[in-house]
Task: inverse folding
């Protein structure tokens, strides 16, 4: 039995959701990368139960949940397959209708009618234009997290490497004017004092635990290329995926050092935000993977909690005048 990926104290419902999230992400990622196609068979519930270290009935329940979203098809006595709707338009997955109906129902139970919900969503995320600054080890990490904060959370985001911040005679302007400071666990303790001195909220993000056992476990069944901006980040990637089955299929290329023309035209290829920036309009061979979401659901909820609180306080202040 594999070591359980479900935290102690997690309820059965929570476990199902965690497993469904992992399966959902790996299917979407593999479809986008071209390593899964409509009609391809997925691992059985018993296979995944061994991988996740849970009862196979939890996996069946998770499969049923994402089947209801149109991502997979359950065939009686025939297994689980990628559904035609999974590909979506431009890589966008189909609308999870059941989940959306649940959101509207929960809003109504809180006396928020559907005619008002969209306005509350807009005002609680867009009343303020919030700024975030990312501080972590490498430029690859900094630019990748800045992209997530901009695209997924709506921040104006800038970043600094730890070395740049240490070398600064005084806190850089990006840090002084930021509403939120974001970093990784390696630098949380050090930055906590700096953020407190500047009266800034600090969030130490966690990386998605299912990133390794989820989508990358599928991707690494065949050669995958990663084009990075620094040797240091390349080594971090190798360590991160060191225990992932198929890690021998991971080929890390460093921009400016390695020959990028060696990438096969059909190979799934991960390109960091730093490389995308430094290459400009130059084309890299390979099937370029969409930018990965690395921030865990728990950290995302913490970030959204900060966004909503800031916006609600701003709304209350404006209505009070």
Result:
């Amino acid at each position: 039995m594999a070591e359980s990926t479900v935290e102690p104290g997690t309820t059965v419902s929570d476990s199902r959701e965690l497993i469904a999230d992992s399966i959902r992400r790996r299917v979407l990622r593999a479809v986008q990368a071209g390593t899964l196609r409509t009609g391809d068979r997925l691992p059985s519930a018993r296979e995944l139960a061994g991988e996740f270290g849970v009862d196979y009935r939890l996996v069946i329940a998770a499969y049923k949940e994402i089947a209801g979203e149109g991502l997979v098809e359950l065939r009686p006595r025939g297994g689980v397959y990628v559904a035609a709707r999974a590909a979506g338009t431009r890589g966008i997955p189909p609308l999870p209708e059941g989940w959306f109906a649940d959101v509207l129902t929960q809003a109504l139970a809180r006396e928020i009618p559907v005619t008002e919900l969209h306005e509350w969503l807009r005002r609680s995320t867009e009343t303020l234009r919030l700024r975030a600054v990312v501080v972590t080890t490498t430029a690859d990490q900094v630019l990748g997290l800045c992209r997530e904060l901009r695209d997924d959370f709506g921040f104006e985001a800038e970043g600094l490497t730890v070395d740049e911040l240490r070398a600064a005679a005084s806190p850089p302007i990006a840090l002084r004017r930021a509403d939120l400071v974001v970093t990784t666990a390696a630098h949380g303790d050090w930055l906590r004092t700096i953020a407190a001195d500047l009266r800034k909220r600090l969030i130490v993000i966690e990386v998605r635990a299912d990133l390794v056992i989820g989508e990358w476990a599928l991707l690494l069944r065949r050669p995958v290329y990663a084009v990075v901006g620094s040797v240091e980040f390349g080594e971090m990637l190798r360590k991160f995926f060191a225990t992932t089955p198929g890690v021998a299929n991971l080929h890390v290329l460093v921009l400016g050092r390695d020959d990028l023309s060696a990438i096969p035209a059909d190979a799934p290829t991960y390109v960091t935000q730093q490389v995308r920036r430094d290459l400009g309009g130059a084309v890299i061979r390979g099937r370029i993977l969409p930018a990965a979401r690395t921030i865990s659901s728990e950290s995302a909820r913490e970030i959204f909690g900060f966004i909503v609180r800031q916006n609600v306080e701003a709304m209350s202040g404006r209505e009070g005048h």
